[in-house]
Write a structure and sequence with these properties.
- It comes from Echinicola arenosa.
- The chain has 58 residues and is mostly helical.
- The protein has one domain.
- It contains 2 helices and no strands.
- The chain is elongated, with a radius of gyration of 15 Å.
Length: 58
């Protein structure tokens, strides 16, 4: 379950940047949001592969 916590922590860490970008128009925050979303995508892909590997072993 540590992978789930990793995703949750990443999303929570981005909350302030989401607010700064969408509510205040802060462009630098938008860059951080985009980077965070890319990190999230990579983590999700790793988890998908991990789950598939575990399923295939059983």
């Amino acid at each position: 379950m540590s992978r789930f916590s990793e995703i949750k922590d990443l999303v929570m860490a981005l909350e302030a940047d989401f607010e700064k970008f969408y509510d205040k128009g802060n462009q630098a925050a938008g860059t951080r949001v985009r980077k965070g979303m890319q990190d999230l995508k990579n983590i999700a892909q790793d988890i998908r592969k991990e789950v598939q590997d575990i399923k295939n072993q059983g």
